[in-house]
Amino acid sequence: MKTILLATILLSTIIFASDGYKIYKKNCASCHVEVMNKKDVLKNITKMKAPPMVEVSARLKENIKTTDEEDDVNRYLFILFVKDYIINPNLDNSICHAGALEKFGTMPSLKDKISPKDAYTVAEWLYDRYENIEFK
Ligand code: HEC
Q1: Is residue 9 classed as helix, strand or coil in its secondary structure?
Q2: Mutation test residue for ligand 1: of 84, 101, 103, 107, the one with most atoms within 8 Å of CB
Q3: What are the contacts of 14-20 at 24+ separation with CB within 8 A?
Q4: Which atom of ligand 1 is nearest to the CA of 104?
Q5: Closest C-alpha to 76, from 60, 89, 88
Q6: 76 CA distance to ligand 1 centroid (A)?
Q7: Atom 8, ligand 1: residue with shortest CA distance
Protein backbone atom coordinates (compact mmCIF):
# COMPACT_ATOMS: atom_id res chain seq x y z
CA MET A 1 0.00 0.00 0.00
CA LYS A 2 2.78 2.33 1.01
CA THR A 3 4.60 1.53 -2.23
CA ILE A 4 1.56 2.33 -4.31
CA LEU A 5 1.13 5.62 -2.52
CA LEU A 6 4.75 6.48 -2.99
CA ALA A 7 4.64 5.53 -6.65
CA THR A 8 1.56 7.67 -7.14
CA ILE A 9 3.19 10.66 -5.50
CA LEU A 10 6.33 10.16 -7.54
CA LEU A 11 4.39 9.74 -10.77
CA SER A 12 2.29 12.83 -10.19
CA THR A 13 5.40 14.89 -9.50
CA ILE A 14 6.93 13.67 -12.73
CA ILE A 15 3.78 14.42 -14.71
CA PHE A 16 3.56 17.80 -13.04
CA ALA A 17 7.18 18.58 -13.80
CA SER A 18 6.77 17.64 -17.44
CA ASP A 19 3.70 19.86 -17.61
CA GLY A 20 5.80 22.77 -16.44
CA TYR A 21 8.45 21.92 -18.99
CA LYS A 22 5.88 21.82 -21.77
CA ILE A 23 4.59 25.23 -20.75
CA TYR A 24 8.17 26.51 -20.72
CA LYS A 25 8.77 25.11 -24.22
CA LYS A 26 5.58 26.62 -25.56
CA ASN A 27 5.68 30.04 -23.89
CA CYS A 28 9.20 30.87 -22.76
CA ALA A 29 11.77 28.95 -24.80
CA SER A 30 11.60 31.32 -27.77
CA CYS A 31 13.34 33.93 -25.61
CA HIS A 32 14.89 32.11 -22.65
CA VAL A 33 17.28 29.23 -23.38
CA GLU A 34 17.08 26.51 -20.75
CA VAL A 35 20.74 26.20 -19.78
CA MET A 36 23.87 28.14 -20.70
CA ASN A 37 26.98 28.98 -18.73
CA LYS A 38 28.13 32.53 -18.05
CA LYS A 39 30.95 32.41 -20.57
CA ASP A 40 28.66 31.36 -23.42
CA VAL A 41 26.08 33.93 -22.43
CA LEU A 42 28.67 36.67 -22.77
CA LYS A 43 29.84 35.24 -26.06
CA ASN A 44 26.32 35.01 -27.49
CA ILE A 45 24.78 38.02 -25.84
CA THR A 46 24.08 39.88 -29.08
CA LYS A 47 22.03 36.95 -30.37
CA MET A 48 20.06 36.41 -27.19
CA LYS A 49 16.61 37.77 -26.49
CA ALA A 50 16.59 37.20 -22.75
CA PRO A 51 18.74 35.80 -19.96
CA PRO A 52 18.85 31.96 -19.86
CA MET A 53 16.40 30.35 -17.44
CA VAL A 54 19.19 28.92 -15.32
CA GLU A 55 20.35 32.48 -14.64
CA VAL A 56 16.86 33.80 -14.00
CA SER A 57 16.18 31.00 -11.53
CA ALA A 58 19.49 31.46 -9.71
CA ARG A 59 19.16 35.22 -9.48
CA LEU A 60 15.63 35.09 -8.14
CA LYS A 61 16.59 32.45 -5.57
CA GLU A 62 19.39 34.71 -4.38
CA ASN A 63 17.05 37.63 -3.98
CA ILE A 64 13.79 36.12 -2.82
CA LYS A 65 14.65 34.87 0.61
CA THR A 66 13.04 35.15 3.97
CA THR A 67 15.27 35.56 6.97
CA ASP A 68 14.18 32.30 8.54
CA GLU A 69 15.54 30.36 5.56
CA GLU A 70 12.44 28.22 5.36
CA ASP A 71 12.77 26.47 2.01
CA ASP A 72 9.04 25.96 1.55
CA VAL A 73 8.36 29.62 2.21
CA ASN A 74 11.15 30.74 -0.10
CA ARG A 75 9.90 28.44 -2.84
CA TYR A 76 6.36 29.74 -2.45
CA LEU A 77 7.44 33.39 -2.59
CA PHE A 78 9.56 32.65 -5.65
CA ILE A 79 6.57 31.02 -7.38
CA LEU A 80 4.26 33.91 -6.54
CA PHE A 81 6.80 36.40 -7.84
CA VAL A 82 7.34 34.55 -11.13
CA LYS A 83 3.63 33.91 -11.67
CA ASP A 84 2.99 37.61 -11.22
CA TYR A 85 5.96 38.69 -13.34
CA ILE A 86 4.84 36.63 -16.34
CA ILE A 87 1.49 38.39 -16.36
CA ASN A 88 2.75 41.72 -15.11
CA PRO A 89 6.39 42.31 -15.95
CA ASN A 90 7.63 45.73 -15.07
CA LEU A 91 10.77 47.56 -14.25
CA ASP A 92 9.82 48.24 -10.66
CA ASN A 93 9.39 44.55 -9.98
CA SER A 94 12.38 43.36 -11.87
CA ILE A 95 15.20 41.71 -9.99
CA CYS A 96 17.27 41.34 -13.14
CA HIS A 97 20.45 43.37 -12.96
CA ALA A 98 20.38 46.77 -14.59
CA GLY A 99 22.80 45.82 -17.39
CA ALA A 100 20.60 42.95 -18.48
CA LEU A 101 17.51 45.10 -18.44
CA GLU A 102 19.22 47.69 -20.58
CA LYS A 103 20.34 45.06 -23.04
CA PHE A 104 17.10 43.09 -23.27
CA GLY A 105 14.45 45.60 -22.31
CA THR A 106 11.56 44.57 -20.08
CA MET A 107 9.89 41.28 -20.78
CA PRO A 108 6.57 41.61 -22.64
CA SER A 109 3.50 40.55 -20.67
CA LEU A 110 2.16 37.09 -21.51
CA LYS A 111 -1.24 37.93 -20.08
CA ASP A 112 -3.20 36.92 -23.17
CA LYS A 113 -1.03 33.92 -23.97
CA ILE A 114 -0.92 31.98 -20.73
CA SER A 115 -3.54 31.07 -18.12
CA PRO A 116 -2.90 31.91 -14.44
CA LYS A 117 -2.79 28.17 -13.74
CA ASP A 118 -0.11 27.57 -16.37
CA ALA A 119 1.81 30.60 -15.12
CA TYR A 120 1.83 29.02 -11.66
CA THR A 121 2.88 25.61 -13.00
CA VAL A 122 5.74 27.01 -15.07
CA ALA A 123 6.86 29.06 -12.05
CA GLU A 124 7.09 25.84 -10.03
CA TRP A 125 9.05 24.28 -12.84
CA LEU A 126 11.44 27.24 -12.88
CA TYR A 127 12.21 26.72 -9.20
CA ASP A 128 12.47 22.93 -9.20
CA ARG A 129 14.24 22.47 -12.53
CA TYR A 130 17.35 24.23 -11.25
CA GLU A 131 17.39 22.81 -7.74
CA ASN A 132 21.08 22.68 -6.75
CA ILE A 133 22.17 23.96 -10.15
CA GLU A 134 24.34 27.05 -10.08
CA PHE A 135 24.72 29.60 -12.81
CA LYS A 136 28.41 30.08 -13.42
C1 HEC B 1 9.42 37.71 -25.92
C2 HEC B 1 10.52 37.25 -25.10
C3 HEC B 1 10.21 36.60 -23.77
C4 HEC B 1 9.35 35.55 -23.48
C5 HEC B 1 8.47 34.79 -24.47
C6 HEC B 1 9.49 35.27 -22.07
N7 HEC B 1 10.37 36.14 -21.50
FE8 HEC B 1 10.92 36.20 -19.54
N9 HEC B 1 12.16 37.76 -19.91
C10 HEC B 1 12.38 38.34 -21.15
C11 HEC B 1 13.36 39.40 -21.01
C12 HEC B 1 13.86 40.27 -22.13
C13 HEC B 1 13.74 39.43 -19.66
C14 HEC B 1 14.79 40.34 -18.99
C15 HEC B 1 14.23 41.67 -18.62
C16 HEC B 1 13.27 41.61 -17.49
O17 HEC B 1 13.65 41.19 -16.38
O18 HEC B 1 12.10 41.96 -17.71
C19 HEC B 1 12.96 38.40 -18.99
C20 HEC B 1 13.01 38.15 -17.64
C21 HEC B 1 12.29 37.17 -16.99
C22 HEC B 1 12.30 36.95 -15.56
C23 HEC B 1 13.16 37.71 -14.56
C24 HEC B 1 12.42 38.80 -13.84
C25 HEC B 1 13.35 39.64 -13.02
O26 HEC B 1 12.98 40.11 -11.97
O27 HEC B 1 14.48 39.85 -13.40
C28 HEC B 1 11.48 35.89 -15.31
C29 HEC B 1 11.16 35.27 -13.96
C30 HEC B 1 10.96 35.45 -16.59
N31 HEC B 1 11.46 36.25 -17.58
C32 HEC B 1 10.12 34.38 -16.74
C33 HEC B 1 9.58 33.99 -17.95
C34 HEC B 1 8.70 32.85 -18.11
C35 HEC B 1 8.36 31.87 -17.00
C36 HEC B 1 8.33 32.82 -19.42
C37 HEC B 1 7.37 31.86 -20.08
C38 HEC B 1 6.10 31.64 -19.42
C39 HEC B 1 8.96 33.94 -20.08
N40 HEC B 1 9.72 34.62 -19.16
C41 HEC B 1 8.80 34.27 -21.43
C42 HEC B 1 11.78 37.98 -22.34
C43 HEC B 1 10.84 36.97 -22.49
Answers
A1: helix
A2: 107
A3: 16/121, 16/124, 17/125, 17/128, 17/129, 19/121, 19/125, 20/121, 20/122, 20/124, 20/125, 20/126, 20/128, 20/129
A4: 12
A5: 60
A6: 19
A7: 107
Hey, whose CA ends up nearest to atom 10 of ligand 1?
A: 107
Neighbours of 117 (CB within 10 A): 10
Q: Provide block-wise average pLDDT over 10 residues at a time, the chain (136 residues).
A: 71 72 98 96 92 95 82 92 93 73 89 96 97 93
Supply the pTM of this predicted model: 0.88
Residue 23: phi, psi to the nearest 5?
-65, -40
Report which ligand 1 atom has the smallest distance to the Cα of 96: 27
Which residue ranges make up each domain of the chain? Answer: 2-129
Task: Identify the CATH number of the domain defined by range 2-129.
Answer: 1.10.760
Q: Which tens digits make up the pLDDT trace of 85-101?
A: 999 998 777 777 777 77
